[in-house]
């Protein structure tokens, strides 16, 4: 259940009238001169994100006018749970009746996403405002998306002292228990016994043992959908150590794993007819006497050897073993999420995950879903001529290029080496973080690419 969305209105429930600029004039025509004068006096023009309170008897709030860009704007009401006085609210009856399923669902989802607060370490005394469910909202869709986003945000926001590889595995175990999924976790030297040498190499320096988390759910005869998530629970850079400014946010370097678990939750909660597999290589990239070193040559599950050009390009090293295992089953769809490169952020900023795909139809579906879900992606090319930059004189390939250019593309090209050409595969290089707060999107961990990916899976296999 979502605590800030209510089944029914009760005594004292206040009406919210969402209005865009074009609709304000029409609405005012049907109001009393006193109401029109009040709206003018408080300078309410229905600017998106603005509000005006209409006074009632005894100083109570009679109605809230909420400015929106459009009535189906996902973020249109998302600032109100924290912006309104605590209490119960409902949509204007006429507006609510006129909203179609999509618009009603988006407004409700925005409200739910705007009701998030990370309160593990610091309590807040202020309560959120509650909204009566819009009549035509798809409550199941809102529940799926909001609970998955909460899981993702909570995981990314949790600091590394409380979220290491074992705790990430525990989160997967809780999810498996809730949905009666199978779970296999390979820990420490067991990774060598079962041929995941690159994951082991990256994570062996930490006293918190590396592991591969492997969740399976659904009918084995259904189409295979596999999700891989980078689970670097903290990234110091290894022996190629980051500066303090570059290390500051590295608790979020498991953001890909958080996306994978959240997407898995949505698939299972919807009961989609797929054979779901979630693979998460979980490590800490830290320094000790047995840390992997620059110019080491690592074996991988696929059999390729990799020269380590930089220990701070560790995410692709753990992903390559997981992707090779995922690809071995020839899934109908393979998607990986990773907070992989700073180059993607330089190119696209924090809000646009970089999308790479070996299948144009898949890429186009993800881009279209991103637009539909207000969860945009931007495709970058797997530009084959840049692959030669990953050549090594002593191994099958290097984990970085020597010139530092096109870093997001060359990272994608590295991963492509571990996926068959006939496996439809998409790689999302995501930031997983809001650097500042906006309506419905508080500062901290964030789902970027989650809703788009789920929409594609649901459309293809639902």
Automatic annotation (TrEMBL):
Write out the GO biological process terms.
proteolysis
Q: Which GO terms describe its molecular function?
A: manganese ion binding; metalloaminopeptidase activity
User: What are the residue boundaries of the Cytosol aminopeptidase domain, all occurrences included?
Assistant: 310-317
Q: Which UniProt keywords apply?
A: Aminopeptidase, Hydrolase, Manganese, Protease
Q: Does Manganese appear among the keywords?
A: yes
Q: Which Gene3D superfamilies match?
A: Leucine Aminopeptidase, subunit E, domain 1, Zn peptidases
PROSITE patterns in the cross-refs: CYTOSOL_AP
Top-level taxon of the source organism: Bacteria
Pfam families according to UniProt: Peptidase_M17, Peptidase_M17_N_1
**InterPro entries, alphabetized:** Leucine_aapep/pepB, Macro_dom-like, Peptidase_M17_C, Peptidase_M17_N_1
Per the record, its GO cellular-component terms are:
cytoplasm
Q: Could you say which protein family the record assigns here? A: Belongs to the peptidase M17 family.
Q: What is this protein called?
A: Leucyl aminopeptidase
Species the sequence originates in? Azospirillum brasilense
Lineage per the UniProt record: Bacteria, Pseudomonadati, Pseudomonadota, Alphaproteobacteria, Rhodospirillales
């Amino acid at each position: 259940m979502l605590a800030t969305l209510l089944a029914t209105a009760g005594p004292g429930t206040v009406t919210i009238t969402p209005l865009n600029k074009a609709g304000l004039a029409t609405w005012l025509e049907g109001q009393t001169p006193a109401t029109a004068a009040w709206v003018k006096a408080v300078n309410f023009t229905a600017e998106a994100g603005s509000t005006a309170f209409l006074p009632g008897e005894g100083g109570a709030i009679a109605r809230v006018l909420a400015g929106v860009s459009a009535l189906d704007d996902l973020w249109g009401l998302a600032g109100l749970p924290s912006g309104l006085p605590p209490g119960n609210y409902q949509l204007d009856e006429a507006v609510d009746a006129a909203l179609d399923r999509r618009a009603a669902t988006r407004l409700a989802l925005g409200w739910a996403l705007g009701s998030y607060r990370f309160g593990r370490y610091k309590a807040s005394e202020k309560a959120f405002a509650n909204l009566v469910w819009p009549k035509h909202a798809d409550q199941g869709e809102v529940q799926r998306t909001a609970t998955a986003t909460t899981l993702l945000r909570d995981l990314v926001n949790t600091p590394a002292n409380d979220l290491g590889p074992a705790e990430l595995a525990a989160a997967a175990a809780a999810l498996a228990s809730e949905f009666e999924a199978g779970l296999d976790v390979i820990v420490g030297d067991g990774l060598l016994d079962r041929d995941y040498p690159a994951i082991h190499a990256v994570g062996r320096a930490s006293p918190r043992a590396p592991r591969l988390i492997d969740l399976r759910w659904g009918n084995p005869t259904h189409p295979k959908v596999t999700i891989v998530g980078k689970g670097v629970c903290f990234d110091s850079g290894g022996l190629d150590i980051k500066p303090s400014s570059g290390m500051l946010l590295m608790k979020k370097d498991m953001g890909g794993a958080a996306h994978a678990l959240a997407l898995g939750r949505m698939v299972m909660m919807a009961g989609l007819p797929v054979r779901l597999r979630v693979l998460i290589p979980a490590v800490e990239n830290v320094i000790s006497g047995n840390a992997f070193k620059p110019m080491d040559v690592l074996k991988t599950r696929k059999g390729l050897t990799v020269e380590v050009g930089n220990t701070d390009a560790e995410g692709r090293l753990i992903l390559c073993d997981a992707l090779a295992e995922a690809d071995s089953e020839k899934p109908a769809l393979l998607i990986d999420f990773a907070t992989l490169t700073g180059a993607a952020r330089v190119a696209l900023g924090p809000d646009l995950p970089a999308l790479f795909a070996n299948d144009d139809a898949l890429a186009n579906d993800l881009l279209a879903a991103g637009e539909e879900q207000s969860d945009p992606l931007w495709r970058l090319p797997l530009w084959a001529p840049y692959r030669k930059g990953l050549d090594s004189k002593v191994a099958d390939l290097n984990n970085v290029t020597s010139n530092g250019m096109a870093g997001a593309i060359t990272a994608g090209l590295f991963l492509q080496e571990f996926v068959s050409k006939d496996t439809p595969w998409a790689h999302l290089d995501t930031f997983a973080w809001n650097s500042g707060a906006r309506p419905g999107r508080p500062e901290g961990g964030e789902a970027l690419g989650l809703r788009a990916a789920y929409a594609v899976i649901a459309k293809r296999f639902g």
